[in-house]
Target: DNA-binding transcriptional regulator, MarR family
Amino acid sequence: MSKKNEARLNSALELLFYGYRAFTALPDEILAERKLARVHHRILYFVARDPGLSVNKLLSRLCVSKQALNAPLRELQERGLVISVASEQDRRVKCLNLTEEGMALEAQLSASQHKLLSSIFNICGPEAETGWRMVMTALANNSPDKLQR
Amino acid sequence: MSKKNEARLNSALELLFYGYRAFTALPDEILAERKLARVHHRILYFVARDPGLSVNKLLSRLCVSKQALNAPLRELQERGLVISVASEQDRRVKCLNLTEEGMALEAQLSASQHKLLSSIFNICGPEAETGWRMVMTALANNSPDKLQR
DNA sequence: CACCATTGGTCAAATACATTGACCTTTATG
DNA sequence: CATAAAGGTCAATGTATTTGACCAATGGTG
Model:
C-alpha cells in the first residue's frame, strides 16, 4: 500500500512536471523568435488582464523581485509593447498599459495556450475539468504569495 | 459566450501558473539552503526512480541540453550525492546512481511534494483526482519531448 | 512647515546560468 | 584499420538574476 501510494504520488509529480512543460512550450517558441522569455509573457499577460496596474501590483502577481522585473519590463517598453504613465493620484506610481502591438503579441501567446487547454477540456469532458480545477485551485492556494494577491 | 469562455481559459492559465509555483516552492526552499537549484532536484529525482541510467537517458527525461546538464550533474558528484560508474557493456556510457546522502536529500525533497499533493487529493476526493489526472495526462502528452521518453 | 520614515521605482556591479562550439574517448561499420 | 557515429566533457561567451545602493514622491508627526 505505501509503496503503491508512493508510485501514485510520483506519477502526479511527473504529470505536473511534463504538463507544465507542455503548457509553456508553444509560447516559449513564439517568444524565442523575438528573443523574449517567459517572464515577458507573464508581464504582458497580467498587464492585459489588469490595464493600468502599478509596477508593485505586477510584482506581487508575478512573485519576482523588483530588480528581476526591471530589465524585462524596460525591454518591453523600449520595444513599444508596453507604455507607462505616471498616476494622477500618486506621481511615484507608474501605470502600465499595453500598446496595440503589445496586445497583439499577448493575444497570440495566450491564444496558443487557450487552444491547447480548450481542446484538452473538450476531450476530457466537463467532470474532468471540474476535478482538475478543484485540485489546481487547492494547489494554487498553497502558493507562498497568495496573501499578496 | 466567447468572452465568458476566454475568462474560463484565462483562469485555467492562472491556476497552472500559481499551482506550479506552489508545487515547486517547498523543494526550492530546501534546495536554496544548500545552494542548489530545481535542476538538481530533477536530476536526483530521475536517478532515484531509475538507478543506473545513462547521462543520455537522463537528458531525454529532463529535456535540457547535454551542456546544461553537465555543470549541475558535476556539482552533485563533487558533493557526493551522485556517483557514476562506467557501464560494463559499453564503456562510453556512465551509469548514474545516488549515494546514501543523495537518496536522503531526494527523499526529503520529494516527500515535501508528496505531502502537499496527498493532502490536496484527500480534501478534493477521488473523483477530482481522477479528473485532474485525466487532464494532466492529456496535457503532458503534448510535451514536445514525449517521443523521447 | 520642517523632518524623517515609508513607498514606488531605478541603476550598476557582481554572480550565477545557459548556450555555443570545439574536443576526447569508445564503439560500431565497411 | 580507417572512419563515422555515439556518449560525454570542457572552456569561452553571452545572457539572466541577485545584491545592494540609490533617487523621488508621499504621508505623518512635532
About this structure: Chain B touches chain A through 51 residues (CB under 8 Å). The beta strands of chain B are 53-54, 82-86, 94-98. Residues 2-33 of chain B form the longest helix (32 residues). The longest strand of chain B covers residues 82-86.
